[in-house]
Amino acid sequence: MRSRFARYTAGAVVSGAAALAVAPAAMAQPQFQLVHQRFAAPPTTAQCETQIGIACYNGPQFEHAYGTDQLYSKGITGAGQTIVIVDSFGSPSIQQDLATYDQQNGLPAPPSFKVIAPEGPIPAYSSTDNTMGGWMVETSLDVEMAHAMAPGANILLVETPVAETVGVTGFPQMMKAEEYVVNHHLGNVITQSFAAAEQTFAKPAQIQALRYAYRDAAAHGVTVLGSSGDQGPTSAEADGDLFPFEVVNWPASDPLVTGVGGTQLHLDANGNRIAPDNVWNDQALFGSAAAGSGGLSTVFGRPSYQDSVASVVGGARGVPDISASAAVDGGANVYISTINTPQGITAPGWYVIGGTSEASPLTAGVISLADQVAGHGLGQINPALYKMGDGAGSGITDITAGNNAVSFTNSNGVTYSLPGFSAGPGYDLASGLGTENAPQFVFQLAALAGK
Q1: I want to staple 408 with a disulfide (CB 3.0 to 4.6 A). Which of 95, 101, 289, 422 is the partner?
Q2: What's the pTM?
Q3: The CATH number of the domain where 274 resides is what?
Q4: Which of 187, 272, 258 is closest to 227 using CA atoms?
């Protein structure tokens, strides 16, 4: 019998350590973890703790935890900005899903919510297609989390017509779609909740050939975010197994992208912290690798903005740069109305979801607030982030507890344990610089980015 704690990875639904389906090729994976428990109405934290043994949070709790609610009263809501969300296939019910999410969370509709498919028509949705179902869940998560953080920002959902088989299809269409967005000035921040291990590409040149969209974004003042991944210090191989050694995911590892890792929030019913954030690690919950990804790139050398943390990253690009909520124990209540039986969505309702696919759109929402304060797109924000660091009064709160160590059993029957990385004072490969404290972060980023 399938556990209700199941994770989506590489086109497969995994319950505990047992893969129920294996994708035929490594894929750019939606980085989310889904609990197979439906709620008819958005559950309270207490209800989740009682009924499924984990915490869950609604929009206002995230707003208060990150302090964005303090900015709304000042008119800083993301007004005049557009958050761009890129997903394969999208969701046929995303408009109504967001409307229901907004109604239940007391949020206004975004001023504009558009869906475009610049790379061609989207195939008809199939409720029995596991891959389409994964992207459908991903789309609802992305849109609802971005809007929760920046309720005054426009939303632009960019759908692409094919799933990724590393570097062959998928990524090229995603990069062309992002180039289209940049060249047509359609938004100032792009969030990407997908990832593939650098080692799944045939050679580094394959990655280099796909970077043109990020160069274009940097040249036009567009910020690009990428989820770091959901398997701790490893990720999926081409056959669906996990690499038995440390790897990092692209595009989060790209120096032109802000890699967003995962944390666990501990909140009361009003969104007040009852304990400090720690690195997201739900290994015990899933019985398999489920933790925020981080580590050292084997493709990219250390960018100059990481010179200040050379003692941690050495000569390599280190990931992540910053982190936000991603834990399933402390997951987001997301409304989904499109049925997909392989994903466990058997009826419209509220589902608890975590993963760094949550962290990236949450962070995109906060950045759009900074864009509003600055009056323009901030472009490549990583140099500014490393200037901000974690000093007194900083907009970045250091994460000093937790690790992303994982254990897993591959199809060869061998169990592997990877120690991963631990959080500590300052920058680390488990949480990056830390997590955003919006009331300070927004103004500091607006002042520093681009300088």
Answers
A1: 289
A2: 0.93
A3: 3.40.50.200
A4: 258
